[in-house]
Write a structure and sequence with these properties.
48% of the residues lie in helices and 8% in strands. It is built from 25 helices and 14 strands.
Length: 590
C-alpha cells in the first residue's frame, strides 16, 4: 500500500517523502544539464535517503509520543468520568428525602438527649391496668358434646388469594362458613400471586395435622376431596363462587342463601378468592368463637419457621431463654437453645427490649395510594408508570378523574413515610438508643427514604441483619414464609408500632398481642387523619406542642375497650366468644 511506510509530518503533506517524489527529483536534476556526473547523483541520492531515514525515525517517535499522550488523555477523561459518576452515586446515596425538615431537626435534638423525656408516656408498658382483666376464652370449643360427623351437606373448598396474612384471614373465615353450612372443609389452597410470587401451600406454612386435630370438635377437616370429586369442573357444574358473587363482609344469611342450595345439589362448593367475604357483627357468638379458635390457637407455623423465628427473637432480645406466654404460643416445642452464645443486656442487666415497627411503604402501596411524598416530578413519573403496568384498571380510571393528593392526605389516606414514623416515635420519647426491628418489604425510595429514620434511630435492624444468609436460605424465595418471620418478631416485641392500620399484618399482630399478651404487650397506633392535621401546622408548632399532640393521639387508641361495632375480631378480639373479662370477685363475663 502506497505511503504505508511513510510518516505524516505537518499538515498539508509537505514533509511527505516517497518513491514518487524521489523520481521527480531525479527528473529535475537531469533537466539541469549534462554537467552532473553519476558520482554526484549517487551522493545526492545517498543524502536524500539518509534524510528520509531521519524523518522516518523522527516521525515514528512523534507518533509514539502522540499515542501515549492520547491514551493518557483518554485515561484521564475516563477516570474523571468515572469519578464524577461515583461522586454522583455517593451524593445520591448520602442524600435524604425529607418532607419535614424543621421537625426532623428538632427530633434529632430530642432523641440524642441523655435521658428520654418520657414522664407522661409509658414507653414500654401497657398504661391501662384494665387490659390485664381480659383473658383468652376461645380455647373452649363451641359445641361441647360430640364431633361433627361425615353425614353433612358436602364439601367446602377455598382457594385463597393475597399474601400470608390475607390467606390466614380467609382460612379462619372458611372454618366459620363450613360450620355454618354444615359442611366438611377441605384443607385450604393458596393461589399463586404475581405480586407475592410464592408457591407455598398450607402445609409449607402451617402444621396441617395440628390444625385438623385442634378444630375437629367444631368442623370436620380433610386434606383432599374424595376421589369422585377431584376431577370435577366446578365452574361447569355451577359450584364455583367468586368474590364477585358475594359482597365484601357479607352476613351469614348471604352464604345460606347463595351457597347452601348449590352445596346440597352438587355436594361441593369452591370459593375462589374468598377475600374478606364474611362480616363480623352479625356472626353468632358460637361461630365468632370458631374464628378466634382458628386464628389464635389452631394455626401454628411449620416447625422450620418456628425454629428460625425463635432464633430471630432470641438474638433480638439477646437472651437464650424463651419464657413468655407469647413464646409458648408462637414456638411450642420448637424453640432453639442458644445458651452457648453471648447474651446482650440492657443498661439494667436484663434482656434487651426492642420495638418492632411495621413500615408499610412498598412501591405498590405507594402507587395505589395516589398520594405524593415529596419526590417531585420524578416520583410522579415513576408511580404513573408503575400503575400503568401493575394497576391498569386504576390507571384507566385516573384518565377521566382528577385526584387531589393534598385532599387524600388531609383525609388520612396516605401512607406514613419512614421519616413521619420516626417523628412519632421521637415525640413519644423513644431516644436514639432504642433497638428497633423493622418489618416489611423493600421501602420505596431506598436508602434516601430510610435515612431520616436511621438518623434518629441508628440501632435499626431487619431479619436479614439478624439471621445469616445460610440460615435464611431455605425460605429466601418464599415471601409468605419470610413474612411469617416478621409476624413472629412483631408479635414478640416489647412494643409494636403500626404505620398503616389497614395492613393485614398490623391487624393480625395487634390482635395476637391483645389476645396472648396478658395486658403487657402495648401497640402504638397513629390516627393518620389527625396526624396529617398536626403535620400541616408544623411551620408554627414547637417541639413541646408537637410532642403533646402526638402523645394524645396515640394514647387515645391505647384505651381498653370492647370491640366496637364494624371492627374486625382479628385486630380487636375483646368480644364475646373470643375473650372474657374477669371481675374483681373472680367472676368472668362475656
Amino acid at each position: 500500500m502506497e505511503g504505508s511506510w511513510v510518516v505524516v509530518g505537518p499538515p498539508g503533506g509537505e514533509g511527505r517523502v516517497g518513491a514518487t517524489n524521489i523520481g521527480r527529483l531525479r527528473q529535475g536534476k537531469s533537466a539541469r544539464g549534462a554537467g552532473v556526473t553519476s558520482w554526484d547523483l549517487r551522493v545526492f541520492a545517498g543524502v536524500v535517503g539518509f534524510m528520509g531515514c531521519l524523518l522516518l525515525v523522527a516521525s515514528q517517535l512523534m507518533s509514539a509520543v502522540h499515542q501515549v499522550q492520547f491514551r493518557n488523555g483518554a485515561t484521564s477523561v475516563n477516570f474523571r468520568g468515572l469519578q464524577e459518576v461515583k461522586q454522583n452515586l455517593v451524593r445520591k446515596e448520602q442524600a435524604e428525602q425529607i418532607m419535614h425538615e424543621r421537625l426532623i431537626q428538632m427530633a434529632t435534638l430530642a432523641t440524642t438527649k441523655n435521658e428520654s423525656d418520657s414522664d407522661n408516656f409509658a414507653l414500654w408498658e401497657e398504661p391501662y391496668q384494665q387490659a390485664r382483666k381480659w383473658k383468652p376464652c376461645a380455647a373452649k370449643h363451641s359445641l361441647a358434646d360430640e364431633e361433627p360427623g361425615e353425614n353433612n351437606n358436602g364439601y367446602i373448598l377455598i382457594s385463597a388469594n393475597g399474601g400470608l396474612n390475607q390467606q390466614r384471614v380467609a382460612v379462619c373465615n372458611a372454618v366459620v362458613v363450613a360450620a355454618l353450612l354444615n359442611a366438611t372443609l377441605v384443607l385450604p389452597r393458596f393461589l399463586y400471586s404475581s405480586v407475592w410470587k410464592d408457591k407455598s401451600q398450607f402445609g409449607d406454612i402451617y402444621q396441617e395435622d395440628y390444625f385438623v386435630n385442634y378444630m375437629k370438635s367444631d368442623v370436620r377437616i380433610v386434606k383432599d376431596l374424595p376421589p369422585h370429586l377431584q376431577s370435577v369442573d366446578f365452574e361447569a357444574i355451577g359450584s364455583q363462587i367468586t368474590d364477585n358473587d358475594i359482597m365484601k363482609e357479607a352476613e351469614p344469611s348471604e352464604f345460606i342463601k347463595s351457597a347452601l342450595p348449590i352445596l346440597r345439589k352438587n355436594h361441593v362448593v369452591h370459593f375462589l378468592g374468598f377475600g374478606n367475604r364474611l362480616g363480623f357483627d352479625s356472626v353468632p357468638v358460637h361461630l365468632q368463637r370458631l374464628r378466634c379458635r382458628c386464628n389464635f390457637h389452631a394455626l401454628k407455623f411449620a416447625p422450620e419457621i418456628q425454629k428460625l423465628g425463635s432464633l430471630l427473637v432470641q438474638r433480638l432480645r439477646g437472651v437464650s431463654e424463651m419464657q413468655t406466654e407469647m413464646d409458648k404460643q408462637l414456638f411450642g416445642g420448637n424453640m432453639i437453645d442458644t445458651a452457648s452464645g453471648e447474651e446482650r443486656t440492657d443498661d439494667a442487666g436484663g434482656p434487651t427490649r426492642y420495638l418492632a415497627l411495621h413500615m408499610r411503604f412498598e412501591v405498590d402501596m405507594v402507587a395505589y395510594s395516589l398520594c405524593e411524598f415529596g419526590g417531585g416530578e420524578e416520583e410522579r413519573r415513576e408511580l404513573h408508570a408503575f400503575r400503568e403496568t401493575h394497576f391498569p384498571a386504576l390507571a384507566t380510571r385516573l384518565r377521566n378523574i382528577t385526584v387531589s393528593p393534598e385532599e387524600l392526605r388531609s383525609q388520612g389516606r396516605c401512607l406514613l413515610t419512614p421519616e413521619e414514623a420516626g417523628l412519632i416515635l421521637s415525640a413519644l420519647g423513644y431516644d436514639h438508643r432504642t433497638f428497633m426491628y423493622v418489618a416489611g418489604s423493600q421501602i420505596y425510595g431506598g436508602a434516601t427514604r430510610r435515612r431520616p429514620l436511621t438518623r434518629l434511630y441508628p440501632n435499626l435492624v431487619t431479619k436479614e441483619d439478624i439471621l445469616s444468609s445460610d440460615e435464611l436460605a431455605p425460605i429466601k424465595n418464599f415471601s409468605s414464609r419470610l413474612a411469617a418471620l416478621d409476624f413472629i418478631a412483631c408479635a414478640s416485641s416489647d412494643v409494636f408500632a403500626v404505620t398503616d392500620s389497614g395492613s393485614q399484618l398490623s391487624s393480625l399482630v395487634s390482635g395476637y398481642r391483645v389476645y396472648h399478651g396478658r395486658g403487657r404487650a402495648p401497640t402504638l397506633h397513629p390516627n393518620r387523619k389527625r396526624y396529617a392535621q398536626i403535620l400541616s401546622e408544623e411551620g408554627g408548632i414547637e417541639w413541646s406542642g408537637f410532642q403533646k399532640r402526638v402523645r394524645t393521639m396515640v394514647e387515645e387508641y391505647k384505651r381498653v375497650r370492647a370491640r366496637p361495632r364494624g371492627r374486625t375480631v382479628y385486630r380487636q378480639p375483646r368480644t364475646p366468644g373470643c375473650m372474657c373479662r374477669a371481675g374483681g370477685d373472680g367472676s368472668v363475663d362475656f
